């Protein structure tokens, strides 16, 4: 298990290094925060486990508190990824965030209903419910993007695909955990831990391969405006944007009826 | 109980994974740079306009005339040929409809805002079209000639075509307004360049 923990940390450090070296932190700061938070979680939990023991109450509380933070970071990172991927398509982005919202409301309702507060499995149900929400919402968004034949950058695709794949696996792993527990399977928690870690490794490896490449469009067109605040700083950028607009409009009107 | 829950959840997860893989596959027509702009600007003559000819081809008057004159062989040949023509027309109607819905999606993708209600209506329309299309094909397979249904299907394509032309006109007007707005500070080929 320690070996798995070490391998996971090394892979996450590799993802973070690549994200920083390839300057992905400029376009995807939330993703970088997500990986950073995961690394921090690994070190904090290692310290807590070695001090209080693996099965102690403080370890349990720290684990779930960290999990909550990581889940929030995952949602923010994925939403930012989608937003970046669709920044040229404001209409579709409007549609997509509504899909996310509806899916979140619907499945939070379902999770609330299934996760009875008095039940010892309440946290487990909430954990599975979160991943279920996440997978449904983001797969739906990707289906909407596909429906409109929009091509998104391969880097974004792989990162989003990785999050969705990991969420799908978590849904199965959580159900498997309860199933094994109820069948009195020895070491059920180890099976759950190991399966989650192995799946996360595979996602990290795919992310490393994807992050070696720069992002196609978003890096070239940051949405942030000119920071210089001077005419000399702003003018070339404004000119470039206007030339882009001119080119687009010329292409558009080239096929229109001849001008009188 | 628990194993059945595991099966159900695993099935849901597998379905989500299949949807994910399908969604992540590269679309055949890629982003805005690769939208077929010719398709956007050539609504052209739709097959729905040939409905009166198809109605004539599907009528039994000519066949009855041939039968009365004793040209049985010719009558059955004509019946077969005309049936082929009607089926071909049906297929072309579907092609037209698919082309129009594809164009509608392209316009929606390029629009600054997309109406959810309109998109839902469009999805419903596509579903309705497919149901009617297969019902007509089935009816043909059983030897019926559902002319009323075929007319309704043509009407759907014509209606969508008119709506698309209106959308394209609006799209063009907006672009023209954008040109005017961009070129208003300065007059010249490089409109509005600071």
A few lines on this structure:
Chain A has helices spanning 2-21, 24-27, 29-52, 57-85, 90-114, 122-147, 154-182, 188-211, 231-254. Chain A is mainly α and 260 residues long.
Structural write-up:
The complex is a heterodimer of chains A (260) and B (194). With 260 residues, chain A is an all-alpha fold. Chain A contains 9 helices and no strands. Chain A folds into 2 domains: 2-211; 225-260, no CATH class. Chain A is 79% helix and 0% strand. With 194 residues, chain B is mostly helical. Chain B has a domain at 49-183. Chain B contains 7 helices and no strands. Chain B has helices at 2-24, 37-41, 51-58, 61-69, 72-110, 116-141, 147-183. The interface between A and B is large, with 49 and 50 residues.
Give the strand tally of chain A.
Answer: 0
In whole angstroms, the N-to-C terminal distance of chain A is 77 Å
Alpha carbon gap, first and last residue of chain B? 71 Å
Q: Beta fraction of the residues of chain A?
A: under 5%
Spans of chain A of 5+ residues with little confidence (pLDDT < 50)?
A: 218-231, 255-260
Determine the number of helices of chain B (DSSP H or I, runs of at least 4 residues): 7
Order of helices and strands of chain B: HHHHHHH
- Arithmetic mean of pLDDT of chain A: 80
Q: Which band does the percent of strand residues of chain B land in? A: under 5%
- Molecular shape of chain B: flat
Major sheet description of chain A: none
- Number of structurally distinct domains of chain A: 2
Shape verdict of chain A: globular
Topology as H/E string of chain A?
A: HHHHHHHHH
């Amino acid at each position: 298990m320690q070996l798995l923990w070490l391998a996971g940390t090394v892979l996450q450090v590799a993802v973070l290094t690549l994200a920083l070296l390839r300057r992905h932190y400029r376009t995807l700061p939330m993703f970088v925060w997500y990986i950073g938070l995961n690394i921090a979680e690994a070190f904090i939990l290692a310290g807590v486990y070695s001090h209080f023991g693996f099965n102690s109450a403080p370890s349990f509380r720290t684990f779930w508190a960290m999990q909550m933070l990581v889940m929030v970071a995952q949602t923010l990172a994925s939403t930012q990824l989608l937003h970046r991927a669709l920044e040229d398509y404001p209409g579709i982005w409007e549609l997509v965030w509504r899909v996310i919202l509806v899916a979140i409301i619907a499945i939070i309702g379902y999770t609330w209903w299934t996760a009875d507060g008095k039940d010892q499995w309440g946290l487990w149900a909430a954990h599975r419910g979160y991943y279920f929400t996440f997978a449904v919402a983001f797969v739906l968004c990707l289906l909407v993007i596909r429906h409109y034949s929009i091509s998104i950058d391969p880097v974004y695709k792989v990162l989003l695909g990785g999050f969705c794949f990991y969420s799908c696996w978590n849904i199965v792993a959580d159900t498997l955990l309860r199933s094994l527990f109820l069948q009195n399977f020895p070491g059920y928690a180890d099976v759950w831990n190991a399966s989650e870690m192995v799946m996360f490794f595979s996602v990290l490896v795919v992310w490393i391969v994807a992050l070696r490449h720069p992002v196609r469009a978003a890096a070239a067109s940051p949405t942030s405006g000119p920071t210089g605040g001077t005419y000399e700083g702003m003018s070339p950028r404004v000119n470039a944007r206007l030339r882009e607009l001119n080119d687009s409009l010329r292409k558009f009107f080239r096929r229109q009826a001849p001008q009188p | 109980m628990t194993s059945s829950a595991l099966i159900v959840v695993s099935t849901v997860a597998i379905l989500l994974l299949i949807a994910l893989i399908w969604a992540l596959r590269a679309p055949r027509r890629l982003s805005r740079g690769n939208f077929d702009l010719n398709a956007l600007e050539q609504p052209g003559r739709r097959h729905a306009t040939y409905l009166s000819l198809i109605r004539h081809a599907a009528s039994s008057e000519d066949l009855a005339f041939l039968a009365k004159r004793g040209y049985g062989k010719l009558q059955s040949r004509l019946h077969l040929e005309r049936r082929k023509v009607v089926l071909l027309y049906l297929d072309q109607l579907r092609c037209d409809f698919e082309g129009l819905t594809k164009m509608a999606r392209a316009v929606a993708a390029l629009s600054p805002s997309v109406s959810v209600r309109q998109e839902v209506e469009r999805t419903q329309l596509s579903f309705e079209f497919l149901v009617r299309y297969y019902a007509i094909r089935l009816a043909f397979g059983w030897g019926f000639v559902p002319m009323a249904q075929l007319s309704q299907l043509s009407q759907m394509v014509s209606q969508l075509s008119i709506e698309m032309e209106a959308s394209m006109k609006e799209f063009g007007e907006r672009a023209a307004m954008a040109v005017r707005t961009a070129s208003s500070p300065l007059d010249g080929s490089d409109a509005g360049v600071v």
